[in-house]
């Protein structure tokens, strides 16, 4: 074999092996890369399509919330808020100063400590407490504020107790008024009925009056919107008798309340209630919105949490 034949044979073998390698390795590798790329592209398109499908609902929710937050009623409530969430009013002025965890909890039966077991001692959370009294005695939120840096909104109907609350410089927004059990703005008269903590707010609305004892009641949804708390970690609801009606008239689709602590036993209430019947009624109201009854605290408070809250 001459030199030219030998060179041609070597070139043939080299090209043959190169071609074989391309068929055995390079092309399958490129095919795999191409297949993966197509798969990723398909998943991206599907995800984008899913987001597009969800977009009308998201826009609808945001539109409703924007309308709610800018509504005349919400603006009226916002104008009444005493907002100290930034702490500009100065340090706390409690009748019994907080010296540590051992005396920070002023609640009746340790509701905030039990709640924090589910929130895993969350810091920087938000709360709404309806029936806040003077912001210290029997407070469900003082412990969360002082020990875990939570803030939020306190609602108290009684004018004198509300004044005491504001004077304590709690790092919260405070509203003097009550929550309407009808879901519509209303009024109730005779503030003397509200002198004791835990008295019922479930009164029939009466005609308008210039009497300073008239208490204005607002829908809970507008109250939440006025304080920018449509999304909130916990709602404490202690209005002795009106809890079921308030929850039944709340449009939960416009809110994101992760937990609720609802009183169902009312000692000395003007509206006697059956806690068992009340519990079942509230459970039926909250279940469609994804809430589960996690605990009954001391046979008087119901702790509900959203399934995806933790």
TrEMBL record:
<keyword id="KW-0812">Transmembrane</keyword>
<dbReference type="GO" id="GO:0005789">
    <property type="term" value="C:endoplasmic reticulum membrane"/>
</dbReference>
<dbReference type="GO" id="GO:0006888">
    <property type="term" value="P:endoplasmic reticulum to Golgi vesicle-mediated transport"/>
</dbReference>
<feature type="region of interest" description="Disordered">
    <location>
        <begin position="84"/>
        <end position="107"/>
    </location>
</feature>
<dbReference type="GO" id="GO:0005794">
    <property type="term" value="C:Golgi apparatus"/>
</dbReference>
<dbReference type="InterPro" id="IPR029063">
    <property type="entry name" value="SAM-dependent_MTases_sf"/>
</dbReference>
<feature type="transmembrane region" description="Helical">
    <location>
        <begin position="20"/>
        <end position="46"/>
    </location>
</feature>
<dbReference type="GO" id="GO:0005886">
    <property type="term" value="C:plasma membrane"/>
</dbReference>
<keyword id="KW-1133">Transmembrane helix</keyword>
<keyword id="KW-0472">Membrane</keyword>
<dbReference type="InterPro" id="IPR053202">
    <property type="entry name" value="EGF_Rcpt_Signaling_Reg"/>
</dbReference>
<dbReference type="GO" id="GO:0031902">
    <property type="term" value="C:late endosome membrane"/>
</dbReference>
<protein>
    <recommendedName>
        <fullName>Methyltransferase FkbM domain-containing protein</fullName>
    </recommendedName>
</protein>
<dbReference type="GO" id="GO:0016197">
    <property type="term" value="P:endosomal transport"/>
</dbReference>
């Amino acid at each position: 074999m001459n030199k030219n034949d030998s060179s041609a044979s070597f070139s043939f073998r080299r090209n043959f092996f190169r071609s074989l390698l391309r068929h055995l390795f390079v092309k399958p590798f490129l095919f795999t890369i191409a297949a993966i790329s197509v798969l990723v592209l398909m998943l991206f398109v599907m995800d984008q399509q899913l987001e597009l499908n969800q977009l009308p609902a998201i826009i609808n929710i945001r539109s409703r919330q924007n309308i709610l937050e800018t509504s005349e009623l919400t603006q009226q409530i916002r104008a009444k808020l005493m907002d100290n969430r930034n702490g500009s009013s100065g340090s706390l002025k409690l009748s019994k100063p907080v010296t540590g965890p051992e005396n920070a909890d002023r609640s009746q039966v340790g509701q905030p400590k039990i709640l924090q077991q589910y929130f895993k001692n969350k810091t920087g959370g938000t709360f709404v407490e309806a029936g806040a009294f003077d912001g210290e005695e029997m407070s469900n939120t003082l412990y969360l504020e002082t020990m875990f840096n939570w803030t939020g909104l306190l609602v108290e109907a009684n004018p004198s107790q509300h004044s005491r609350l504001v004077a304590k410089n709690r790092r919260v927004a405070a509203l003097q008024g009550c929550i309407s059990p009808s879901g519509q703005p209303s009024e109730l008269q005779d503030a003397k009925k509200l002198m004791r903590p835990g008295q019922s707010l479930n009164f029939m609305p009466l005609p308008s009056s210039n009497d300073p004892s008239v208490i204005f009641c607002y829908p809970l949804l507008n109250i939440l919107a006025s304080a920018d708390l449509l999304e909130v970690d916990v709602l404490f609801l202690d209005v002795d008798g009106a809890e079921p009606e308030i929850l039944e008239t709340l449009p939960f689709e416009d809110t994101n309340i992760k937990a609720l602590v609802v009183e169902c036993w009312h000692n000395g209430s003007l509206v006697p209630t059956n806690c068992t019947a009340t519990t079942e009624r509230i459970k039926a109201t909250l279940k469609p919105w994804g809430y589960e009854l996690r605990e009954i605290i001391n046979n008087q408070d119901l702790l509900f949490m959203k399934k995806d809250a933790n």
